[in-house]
Specification:
seven-stranded mixed sheet, 14 strands, globular, alpha/beta, binds pyridoxal-5'-phosphate
Length: 362
């Protein structure tokens, strides 16, 4: 660990593996002897196409994406997919089903309502978005174009521990803040999308995995930049892709493969989350109100029992090199985002800081 690199618990854009940053630095001015930076290269050059293809192949290997799916790397962030999903999957007037578990699903619902009749299958707002409602409580509509949910609510600290069963109705998931943190059975989904700046690294690129038979469902009037089939037919290069972010994502995929892939990273992530929740639960000074089986492995939210200590907690943690622990403005309190690139050592250091702070103030 470099002396001047702090522990970064930012929710997004978030920590990048140090090995990846060092590699980027090494290659930045002169990419593999070509005399220019990768960000100065045409996306149509054979060198960049090879980088893009390798990144896509490595992503598909990591997530074990089956052959009947296409993986796209697009601009526009997760939020653009909030509109792209109904435009690509719902015929005009067809109802779409949403399971609302927090801030990001709520935003997606607002967007979908402008484009389709939305049925809320279940909603945990009355419980302060502190749980995933069990599927036994859900009320699907009769002819939904798809069922949509958010795998991990980045702000509310709530994560699904099960994959919903929607029969023949395509399941669509926003996996922005948890993709690649552990294995996922892609074959259960119609569409998986994820903005990269949470658990992959750089902002400016969004992965969209689409089951190919769903391409037929796009409306005739979908703008080309939002049209999954248009992007698929052009290998995600129907317009200029975010080349530097794609290259960087590819380095992160290689880093994950070298670590042993998703089964290995899952073990580390499970351990990190378990010890941090244990530290919170075994203290009266820190609180987390999320139901145990709905707790996020990636975004651990907590509050201090007495909010008068918030300011000192943030000041002292920052001074100790533990950055970005302030909770989202919609939620208050604290949040430690412990994505793949946040080491177990970082989590241990945070736990030590928390118990130390409690001893001095509790
Ligand atoms: C951050 C986030 C988004 C929004 O991503 P943008 O790239 O900022 O549009 C959507 N969904 C989830 C779950 C997120 O964490």
């Amino acid at each position: 660990m470099h002396m001047n690199r702090a522990y970064n618990f930012s929710a997004g854009p978030s920590a990048m593996p140090e090995e990846v940053l060092l590699r980027v630095r090494e290659e930045l001015l002169d990419w593999r002897g070509m005399g220019l930076s990768i960000m100065e290269m045409s996306h149509r050059s054979k060198e960049f196409i090879a980088v893009a293809e390798q990144a896509t192949a490595d992503f598909n290997t990591l997530l074990e994406v089956p052959k009947d799916y296409t993986t796209l790397f697009l601009q526009g962030g997760g939020s653009t997919q909030f509109a792209a999903v109904p435009l690509n999957l719902a015929a005009a007037g067809q109802t779409v089903d949403y399971v609302n578990t927090g801030y990001w699903t709520s935003k997606s619902i607002t967007e979908a309502k402008r484009l389709a009749p939305v049925n809320i299958v279940a909603c945990s707002r009355e419980q302060g978005f502190s749980r995933v409602p069990p599927q036994s409580e859900w009320k699907f509509s009769d002819n939904a174009a798809y069922v949509y949910y958010t795998l991990n609510e980045t702000i509310d600290g709530v994560e699904f521990s099960f994959i919903p069963d929607t029969g023949p109705v395509p399941l669509v998931v926003d996996a922005s803040s948890t993709i690649l943190s552990r294995p996922l059975d892609v074959s259960r989904f119609g569409v998986i999308f994820a903005s990269a700046q949470k658990n992959i690294g750089p902002a400016g690129i969004t992965v969209v995995v689409v089951r190919k038979d769903l391409f037929d469902q796009a409306r005739p009037d979908v703008p080309a930049t939002l049209h999954w089939l248009v992007h698929a037919a052009n290998e995600s290069m129907s317009n200029t892709p975010p080349t530097f972010a794609w290259y960087l994502s590819g380095l992160v995929f290689k880093w994950l493969i070298a670590k042993g892939g998703l089964k290995e990273i899952e073990k580390i992530n499970q351990r990190k989350a378990a010890k941090l929740y244990k530290a919170i639960d075994s203290s009266d000074f820190y609180l987390n109100a999320v139901e145990h089986d709905s707790r996020s492995w990636m975004n651990v939210i907590f509050s201090l029992a007495d909010a008068k200590f918030n300011k000192a907690f943030l000041e002292q943690s920052t001074a100790a090199g533990l950055l970005n622990l302030k909770g989202h403005r919609a939620k208050g309190g604290m949040r430690a985002s412990i994505y793949n690139a946040v080491s177990e050592e970082a989590v241990d250091t945070l736990i030590d800081f928390m118990s130390d702070f409690e001893r001095k103030n509790g």
